[in-house]
């Protein structure tokens, strides 16, 4: 049975966008931990953070990660999923972990064009480019620590998906072959 594929990376790197295309290409299920969490609670991320703080949200996102993980599934994670060591270890042990890497300027441009503020309440209270620089400074080491593969996410989504497929096909552990 083929293990799950976890997409990690900062807000706006394309986990949800590329994840759906990747699942189609692999004929896998697609899950998104942010969407799962919002479905289960009936609340937006902003509502959960307002009621329970970021600590409450982080606990709930660990539960979502465990709930949606299954074989033959592509899982788009929330941008902060790597903050908890238990999440990083779980993803590495259960499946293949792909870091979609992009710089702060690209991320900020995407997020400004499509803010989705109910799903992405501010993390620092600072303007978006500064926020993304700060977030990357704190998290890059964690994304790198969790990832089996690092993919340049500053290319067109189809290109990003194709490079993930190629990386998975090169990896013995994924159970994925491009030829059959
Ligand atoms: N490779 C890409 N090239 C150009 N635009 C992209 C690319 N990937 C995603 N986008 C755009 O960037 C925005 C954010 O993408 P998406 O929601 O997939 O990011 P995400 O990593 O899931 O973010 P979050 O962590 O907040 O869930 C969307 O408007 C999407 O269309
Ligand atoms: O980068 C983050 O910490 C977050 C990213 C989003 O996917 C959501 O999970 C939430 O807004 C937190
Ligand atoms: Mg997403």
From TrEMBL:
Membrane-spanning segments: none
Q: GO cellular component terms?
A: cytosol
Q: Name one GO molecular function term.
A: magnesium ion binding
Which parts of the sequence bind Mg(2+)? 16, 32
Top-tier EC class: transferase
Q: Which CDD domains match?
A: SK
> According to its UniProt entry, what is the function of this protein?
Catalyzes the specific phosphorylation of the 3-hydroxyl group of shikimic acid using ATP as a cosubstrate.
Database matches in PANTHER family: SHIKIMATE KINASE, SHIKIMATE KINASE 2
Name of the protein this chain belongs to: Shikimate kinase 2
List the source organism. Answer: Mixta intestinalis
């Amino acid at each position: 049975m083929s293990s799950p594929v976890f997409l990690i990376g900062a807000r706006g790197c394309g986990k949800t966008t590329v994840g759906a295309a990747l699942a189609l290409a692999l004929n896998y299920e697609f899950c998104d931990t942010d969407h799962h969490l919002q479905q289960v609670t009936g609340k937006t991320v902003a509502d959960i953070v307002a009621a329970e703080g970021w600590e409450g949200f982080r606990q709930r996102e660990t539960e979502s990660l465990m709930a949606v993980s299954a074989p033959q599934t592509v899982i788009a994670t929330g941008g902060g999923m790597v903050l908890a060591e238990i999440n990083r270890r779980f993803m590495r042990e259960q499946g293949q972990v792909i870091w979609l890497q992009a710089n702060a300027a690209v991320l900020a441009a995407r997020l400004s064009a499509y803010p989705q503020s109910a799903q992405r309440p501010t993390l620092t209270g600072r303007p978006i480019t500064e926020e993304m620089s700060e977030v990357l400074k704190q998290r890059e080491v964690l994304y790198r620590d969790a990832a089996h593969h690092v993919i340049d996410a500053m290319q067109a989504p189809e290109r990003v998906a194709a490079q993930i497929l190629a990386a998975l096909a090169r990896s013995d552990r994924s159970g994925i072959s491009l030829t059959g």
